[in-house]
Structure formats: C-alpha cells, structure tokens
Amino acid sequence: MSQIITPTIIPTIKQDLAWSKLLDDSTYFIFFGGGAGGGKSWLLCEWLMTNCYKYPNSKWYLGRNELKRLMMSTYVTFRKVCKYHGIPQSDWKLNGALNYIEFFNGSRIDLLDIAYKPSDPDFERFGSLEYTGGGIDEAGEVKEKAKEVLQTRTGRHMNKEYNLLPKNFYTFNPNKKWLYRVYKMWRAGELPEDSAFIQSLYSDNPHTAKEYGEMLSKLKNKATKERLMNGNWEYDDDKSALFEFDSILDLFTNKAVDSEEKYLSGDVSRKGRDIMPLFLWKGLKCYKIVVIPDDVRRSTKTSAEFIMALAKKEGIRFSRMILDEDGVGGGVVDNIAGCKGFINGSSPVLSSADEIKKQNDEYFENYGNLKTQCYFKLAEYTEKGMIEICVNGDEEIKQTIIDELGIIKQKDLDKDEKKIYLVSKIDMKESLGRSPDFADALMMRMYFEVKEVLDQASDFIITL
C-alpha cells in the first residue's frame, strides 16, 4: 500500500487568501485569477490533489471548455504539481478512456468537457453526476449554465461523512461574459457572503513574475496586454466589439459641435424593470440624462405625461423625440403625438445608392435591422469623437454606460454572412445581468443622424 503523502503547501500571498476560503465553513464559491501568471491553474490542481489525499473515496470534478485543452494545459499542470510535491506515479493513474484520475485510496477527479453542445443546451449530461466539490479552469470560456448545473451536482458525495461544504473553485482571465458580472459585484462590494473573489496577477506570483512580466510586456495588442498583464476588465480584444474602451471613455471628455437643435431619446419599459433612461441632446451633445421615477412608470399614460412635460420644459419638439416602441413602449409612443417610435427589428434606412446596389446584388453595408444600423453609426461617431455625454458628476451612470457599450458586439463576425447583426439581447444580459437600457437609449439618437445623412445622399443622387 502506498505511503500517504501530506503535501506541504507554500502559497503566494494571494493563493493563501484563496486557501483560507477553500478551507472555511462559509464560502461555497471561490473566484481566483484576473490575469496571466497568477498561479491560478496551479492552485486549482494543488487543491484537488490535496483533497484526494485527505479524503479517501471522495469525488471531484475538474472542467474546462474543451477536454483537449484541459489535457494539453491543465492536466500538464496537475502532473507538475504532483512532481513538485513528490507524489509518486503509483499513487494515482489516468484513465484516458473514461477521462478521470483515480488515486490509490479511491478518490477520483473527473476530467470534464463542459463545452456548449446544441444537442444538450441545458447540460443534462451532468444531471446524474455526484461530486464532493470541484473546479473549472478558465471559467470565462464556459457558459454560465454549465457552471450552474455543476454547482447542483456538488455536495452529493461523502460531504456529510467528512463534514465538508460543497466548494466550487473557478479560475479566469478578464472577459465580458458572465464573469464580468461577478467582477462588477466584487468591485462594488456587493458579492454574496457565500462567494469570494481574489484577484491574482503575474506580479503576485514571485515564482514566475519575472518571466511572465517579460512575456506580457512584449504583447503588441493593447487590449490583450491590459487584460492579461494588468487585469483590466474594461479592455476587450474581441474583434467583434463595436466600441474601443478608450473611445468610450472619451465620450465624457469630448466637445461636440455646438448646436441648438434639441432631441430626446429614451428606452421605455414596464414597471419593475430596473431603469428607464431618457437622454436629452443639443446636437450630438447629451447635456442631461433623466431616469424616470418608479412611481411614474405605473402606466404608459403617466410615463407619457412625464416625458411630454420634460420635453416642453426643455424646449424639445415632439417630432425630435424617439422612444423604444417595442412592447410596452408602443403605448407610450401612442400617447405622444408626433413622437418617433423605434422598433429594433424594423428594416434599416437605405439611401437611394444602397437601394440600387441592393437591386444589382452589389456589396453595401447590409444591416439586418434598424438597431444594428444605428449602433454601427453610434460606433462610428464615437470613434470620431463627435459625441459628448455629460453625466453631471453621476459616476454610477457613467460606469453603467461604459459597461453597456463594452458588451455591444457584432454577431458572427468571421462568417461570410450577407446581413450584419448584433449579438442577441440574451447574450448581452448574460454579461450584464440586465438589459443594456442606457446604451439602447444612446443608440436611438442615431436614428436622426442615419435618416438625415441618407436623405441627403438620396437628394444628391436625384439631383445628379
């Protein structure tokens, strides 16, 4: 029988913080990482290996989005951890056919491929599994649904016998998917008491700080460097993202061209939704943002009355107001004579030139709907520094706008699609935990720009 090894753990300062949460009797979910080289995969493997020694016949999961990458990366780290701690190969073995690691004392680590599969959208393939606990390496790559299903499978194997909480451990690099929501809760001090978030960067790991620092400093892509080297969640190196982070920040310091032409754009919604923002404009300068009070939102009539009173006070013509007309918004628009209604899925506005190209089956910016067209126009104006937004010291609204514009992306960028679309509202909500209402209200202002520019182009063609 193999001699029982008691690994001697010498953690970094950040790893020590994580260990305190992994061993306490109150934390169920531990999020560890935030950059490259912080020792996150090492800690995950070290924790699982230690558990397997300490708790005979326990059962754990180790998952990643693709089994191939798990075997080529995370499993390699597991082997290094075992070698570092002097764990003999005779104490454990890999079952390559069924994808699990089994220890001599009956403990086991299942190696899971947790990629999304259209044939299994609810991850029912994990529904009958039972685990003591487990972890996901590079959790930002996986669907939140997969993480949630695996959480329900922990606490079902030997937990009572060992008096163990069902711990779920997640490593990650910054991205704009569901983990971004966890990061924002941590940043705001709103993380649930049963969860812990420990940010660990390359500089927090003295074992590899020098080599990782040299490697990361050579990255040419600014967004990638900010994310992996500095742990900056706001930068996004996704090529499908419409807005660059620096350009978003410039919105609050730009100086738009002076204009006395006033507009109002807003996203109206049912009572119970978090927010109902209205943007007030002088040309391309948003000089005021008003959030409709909760008590006003009790009906479409009171919402319409509030908006009309605001417009009259600010001297905004009803014909230069545009409000979301989808769903309950239609009722508000119907109560305001002359107000434009914005329907997200309606056809884009085409110039005469584009109409001709369309008839001749020639290339043109073929947007799938009006919403996509207006978001692309907003991205264009943002990149050119033409838009100015005044938040009048409201940092919460400023951060909300930054967060929402950061998750607006083009769908299927790498596919040769004839029409251009944005990613679905469901995907956006997965990142934010809510609908991007401020970004949508901002985007609707572009309707007047799109229509005016295309009308001028049409007039030019007719004149010729």
Taking pLDDT < 50 over at least 5 consecutive residues as the criterion, the unreliable ranges are 457-464
Number of strands: 14
Given helix and strand content, the structural type is: alpha/beta
- Cα separation of the termini: 92 Å
CATH architecture of the largest domain: 2-Layer Sandwich
Please characterize this protein's 3D structure:
The chain has 2 domains: 13-228, 3-Layer(aba) Sandwich (Rossmann fold); 245-463, Nucleotidyltransferase, domain 5. The protein is an alpha/beta fold and 464 residues long. 39% of the residues are buried. Mean pLDDT is 89; it is low at 457-464. Helix 2 crosses helix 3 (67-84), helix 13 crosses helix 16 and helix 13 crosses helix 17. Strand 3 and strand 4 form a beta hairpin. The strands form 2 sheets. The chain has an 8-stranded mixed sheet with strand order 3-4-5-2-6-7-1-8, sandwiched between helices. The protein has a 6-stranded mixed sheet with strand order 13-12-9-10-11-14. The protein contains 17 helices and 14 strands. Helix content is 38%, strand content 14%. The N and C termini lie far apart (92 Å).
Q: What is the strand and helix layout of this fold?
A:
Layout: H1 13-22, E1 29-33, H2 40-54, E2 59-64, H3 67-84, E3 92-95, E4 100-103, E5 108-113, E6 133-136, H4 144-152, H5 159-162, E7 168-172, H6 178-187, E8 195-199, H7 209-217, H8 222-228, H9 245-250, E9 262-266, E10 277-282, E11 285-291, H10 300-314, E12 321-324, H11 329-334, E13 340-342, H12 352-359, H13 370-383, E14 388-389, H14 395-406, H15 425-432, H16 437-444, H17 446-463
Helix pairs in contact: 2-3, 13-16, 13-17
